[in-house]
Amino acid sequence: HADREVFLSILLTVKNMVIGVETVSIGAINSCFVAAREIFKGAMLANADAIILCHNHPSGGLAPSDEDIRFTEKITKAGELMGIRLMDHLIVSHQGYRSISHKQS
Known about the structure:
The protein is an alpha+beta fold and 105 residues long.
């Protein structure tokens, strides 16, 4: 129900148990700046094996933007280099949620 975009990272163990939920960034009504280093900083400090990214669309739409898809691909590749898996990237709104998989691009 936020009136601006909020970007979260859910930190997971090797057995996919949640070990933390971190607010990575809070943005404007239609965008949110997120640096890859901020996502992986929390994951590394928590010794997470994997992450799930999540952000809202205050407009209510669930369709991923081109930037959402490019960003997901970028984070997937960065995570592979560091040995931290990106399990999923979710968009949430009052309409529900939608998974952005790097395979959907």
